[in-house]
Request: fold
Amino acid sequence: MKLFRKCIACAAVLLSATLFFEMSSVKTVQAQQKIIILATTTSTQDSGLLDVLIPVFEKKTGYFVKTIAVGSGQAMAMGRKGEADVLLVHSPDAEKKFMAESLGISRRLVMHNDFIIIGPGNDPAGLKGVKSSAEAFKRIAASGSLFMSRGDNSGTHSKEKAIWKSAGINPEGRKWYQQTGLGMGQTLNVSAEKKAYTLADRGTYLALKKSLGLGILVEGDADLLNIYSVIEINPGKWPKVNAQGAKSFADFMVSTEVQGIIGKFGVEKYGSPLFFPDAGKKEESLGR
Amino acid sequence: MDIIIEGIKQAFILIFTLDPEVMGITWLSLKISGTATIISMVLGVSTGTAVALTRFPGRRIVISLINTGMGLPPVVVGLFVTVFLWRNGPLGFLEILYTPASIILAQAVIATPIVMGISLAAMQNLPPGLRLQILALGATRIQMVWMLIKEARLPLLSAIMAGFGGVISEVGASIMVGGNIKGYTRVLTTATVMETGKGNFDIAMALGIILLVLAFIINSILTYVQQRERPR
Reply:
């Protein structure tokens, strides 16, 4: 009986202590207006790039970055509602629309890598040697080989839809076309498990390669360029947006120092860089 | 097979080298889910007891609602809590989205009906004559309620265990309202999801094993308390 009472007493003390701790820690961080919400795509997190960059930024500026890694589509939806301060996304067409609606005040090129079409070693659709992404997708459709789509409105999914469009095929509802609704990393895992073709960004693919057993089949097509930009959300639309923090983060991403880190990121581990720094360049000049 | 052995090996390495990041994540999980469980205990046991011991119109509907609430899908709770806590949402002024406090809130919403439902059943299961007997011995109403709670402590502790088990293992709400922010709102379950996404299956398995061990230890302690206090 005593033990039971003791337990309740302990619990009550623990509760008040924890609550006090939580409240005070929340207050101290937020009182300084030092929080930035960064909505980004899964590839920047799954590839490990943000784990390298965010601590550098936080140390330098004293801001606390809340990274919310979702697809580019969802990240932009958060920005659209003023629920994020700054975006790091890779869906250029949707981004241009976003800027045209003056939801963002600045959009700056940060880096690029490329998309690749990957698939099982036995390559049932015969993609090896194909140069054009649209031609590759046509062959997948013609052979009815399993294709895993992200299906989540992410940057990769938008790119995939654009390629289907230029191939003149509507894959929706076909038996060989399946949507995972998951991030890039998990979609790659599913594709590996089901021996399916998929479209992936090179960064995430290289980071996961060791466990996949899928090979690169099509690469190098100008259509497969994957461009990442940083967008500052317009505080005129949403007064609660931390515009100063957003600017500070965007400036940081295009700074010479960070561009240097991006260019070297992954070289040691994978033998080649995962991203190519592009700050200050024109979008049209990429991939030439 | 390799991956399973590798996962178990990794788990041991992470636990015995006291890896600071994993220790931090484990401690945070414990703190968040522990706090949520305590909140749900206070709300659940009191409301469950009150509903069990009183009669009022619409009581059956209330009980049905509580029992339905026991199966609340965490993702749905996560979605609603997120929408409410958005900067521009109805509770945006609290500014707690993507903080540990928001995860505690969501988990408390998930655990409270579980604790409440089991408490309700426990109190209803007491012998009906017991109340009269206690009152006849000259106890006040508050003393009576306290006696009844003590009498039902075995199933009540089970209620708390069920609530804790529900939230420590929950991922949908935690990832939505917490955002899986490194060193801040990253708990064992959300870290497991992320490491799986990164293809680090061994680390993901290790985190899973740590989660299981943690749940086992907590439940062992509660079971010890529960069984030791077996009524004579």
